[in-house]
Amino acid sequence: MLIKISFVLLIGNYAYIVLLNKFPTFNFFVMSYLAKAKELYAMVGQGQMMEAFEKFYHNDIEMIEATGEVRKGKDFNREFELKFMEGIKEVHGSGVDGITANEEDKITMSESWMDVTFKDGNRIRMEEMAVQHWEGDQIIKERFYYNPGPMSSADPNQ
């Protein structure tokens, strides 16, 4: 008689599904959505923005700006990101102030900032909140929240 017992073993940010027959075997592991979001932002912080985009964004991604502008599809959003990056002359700093997740609803949220000088000479500090809806290992919908009006100077002495 073969008895099968299965359960989920949580170790750090990983969930392992274990099936017990005669000997325990690990079939596969699943990263939490929080761990996926942290990896995404770690890659961005290491200058791997487009690599992170390719890895973590679904082909049917829908991105929604604070202005309400909606961009659909990975190809369209890839071109948007590349055009944005081409407009940057220098990055003075960037960071993530917080990441959180609702694992049950497959949603992550982040608060991030970037201090940049554009090729036109305008230097700004951009701050935003992003809400990401996941489908499997990829983001299917992302909405940004920020002040779409003029941004203040990034110079902390002003």
Task: Characterize this entry briefly.
This protein has three helices and nine strands.
Rg over C-alpha atoms, rounded to the nearest angstrom = 20 Å
- Structural domain tally: 2
CATH class group of the largest domain: Alpha Beta
What is the string of SSEs from the N terminus onward?
A: EEEHHEEHEEEE
Structural class, by secondary structure, is alpha+beta
- Quantity of strands, as a count: 9
What general form does the structure show? Answer: globular
In CATH, the topology of the largest domain is named Nuclear Transport Factor 2, Chain: A
**Quick check: average pLDDT?**
85
β-sheet strand percentage: over 45%
Helix content: 10-25%
Describe the main β-sheet briefly: 6 strands, mixed
Distance between the termini: 76 Å
Q: Number of helical runs? A: 3
Question: What would CATH call the architecture of the largest domain?
Answer: Roll
The residue ranges in which pLDDT falls below 50 over 5 or more consecutive positions are none
With strands numbered from the N-terminus, the spatial order across the biggest sheet is 5-4-9-8-7-6
